[in-house]
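Next comes a single protein record:
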Amino acid sequence: MTPFGQRLRELRAERGATLKQMAAALQVSSAYLSALEHGHRGRPTDGLIHQICGYFGLIWDDAEALARLAEISHPRVVIDTAGLSPEATRLAHLLAQRIGHLDRETLVALMQRIAGEGPVQSE
């Protein structure tokens, strides 16, 4: 599941909307919405994001947050390491190979470290 898909599912649950109801209102298939929620489809179009915001009555910060989640939610990520160090390329490959085996705690710690939010240990 992608961050966008997770938030979409949360919004539906908060509003008590089924996939079928939402799909009918947005004029898309419930299979497509399910695929978005589960991360089996790529980023939705800006038009669909706008429709979803309208469906849930999201404005300002909430609408912007949903759009940002869509931006970072493509299920197939490509990391271009051309021109970077061998260590950067090795890290990209290791992450690609092992990300599916990392627990949530480790993933969160890695994200915080990379984002500069966690404690930085001296080497």
